[in-house]
Design goal:
Radius of gyration: 17 Å
Strand content: 5-15%
Strand order of the largest sheet: 1-2
Shape: rod-shaped
Number of helices: 1
Order of helices and strands: EEH
Largest sheet: 2 strands, antiparallel
């Protein structure tokens, strides 16, 4: 998905770490990484709990 850079206004990928035009850091990319990490951790915890309960 393309988003606009908050500094220069050019379209950049939402997964880009920074704008290739001006170098501004893409905070949207950092937010996505946090949510992916949190989701992975929750899946791991859920699978461990299932094993312990014998489900």
């Amino acid at each position: 998905m393309l988003i606009k850079c908050k500094e220069c206004g050019k379209e950049i990928s939402d997964t880009a770490e920074k704008c290739p035009n001006c170098g501004c850091i893409n905070n949207h990319s950092n937010s996505l990484k946090k949510y992916k990490k949190i989701g992975s951790i929750l899946c791991i915890i859920g699978s461990i709990e299932k094993r312990e309960k014998g489900v």
